[in-house]
Amino acid sequence: MAHIAVQTADFDVHLLYQSLVEANSADGAVVTFVGRVREFNQGQQIADMFLEHYPGMTEKALHELAQQAQKQFTINRVSIVHRVGHLRLSDQIVFVGVTSAHRQDAFAACMWLMDELKSRAPFWKKESTTQGTRWVSA
What we know:
Elements (H helix, E strand, L loop, with lengths): L1 E6 L5 H9 L7 E8 L3 E2 L2 E10 L3 H16 L5 E6 L1 E4 L3 E9 L2 H18 L2 E7 L2 E5 L2
Parallel strand pairs: 1-5
Antiparallel strand pairs: 2-7, 3-4, 4-6, 4-8, 5-7, 8-9
Helix pairs in contact: 2-3
């Protein structure tokens, strides 16, 4: 089971966690990751950022990553929520949650998903810095 969302609105970590564990007594491990906008990147002060995506293509890519994780690791539920649009410092950007019977697979799958999201998901990031705006590569 995978829950995938690409949205401009903020997300509620508690509700996403609840959706992973609701009616799920088989899994003893729940691993989550939340990525936030930080104030410093690649040697420059960040004021804010703008994330763009290609609707349809992005959701498809995230579903494929979730399916790959479920084949590669012994996990059951996966949740990926990624925000797009204008984001300010400390705003939440991404949520990844994974459940498994055991913690090793849950941790490994969550880390793998974040690594793959950063390099393979079709998002484009433009940061506003003290030196102007710049597009950031994966």
